[in-house]
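so my prof wants the structure for this chain in the tokens format not the other one, which i didnt know existed until like an hour ago. anyway here's the sequence
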Amino acid sequence: MFRRRSQSTTDDSPVPVDDPKPQGTQSKGRPTPKRSEAQGRRRSPVTAPANRKEAYRLARERDRKQRDQAREGMLRGDEKYLPARDRGPVRRFARDFVDSRRLPGQYFLPAVLLIMLASMVPFPLEIRRWVLTAYTMSLPLVMVLVLVSSFYVAGRVKREAAEKFPGENLKGVGFYAAMRSSQIRRLRFPKPTVLPGGKPVPARK
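here's what i got, hopefully its the right format
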């Protein structure tokens, strides 16, 4: 009797209905990717060096690319790669001030070199005497002109920088501009970004 009742109770129990939402699938019907599979797709394949020599070669190439990138950044005046003495808006203003003008200091070294080469050429005696006389007389005048120009540039840059950048550190900016004004334009570092007159240097194609 008890056995029959328990059997009927078990048989009459409702059968569970399957969940309409399939487990482990997205709404579009595709299976949900595992985390490891998704991470594996995002990762780019990395090939390990075959030996120590190959590892050294790859390291040298990586270092060379980094040096080239830093050098190019310094030449074009990128603040990220510049040394501390060239960083900041004040120093950039000083460079642009000097580079936008034709100053006597930038012609000093070429003039001295030209006169020295002329004095070494085996001219006739009279011409050589004239060249040496011109050299000894013009050199002090050129030096005085360069010094006057340097003091003018230093004072002008420091005064205009104080007006343009109030509150900024102006220590050494005058000397910085004066030293740049005495350098040959092609040898200046960082490279000039403006032409004489103030126009920007055209980009290289």
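also thought this was worth mentioning. Residues 158 and 179 are 14 Å apart (CA to CA).
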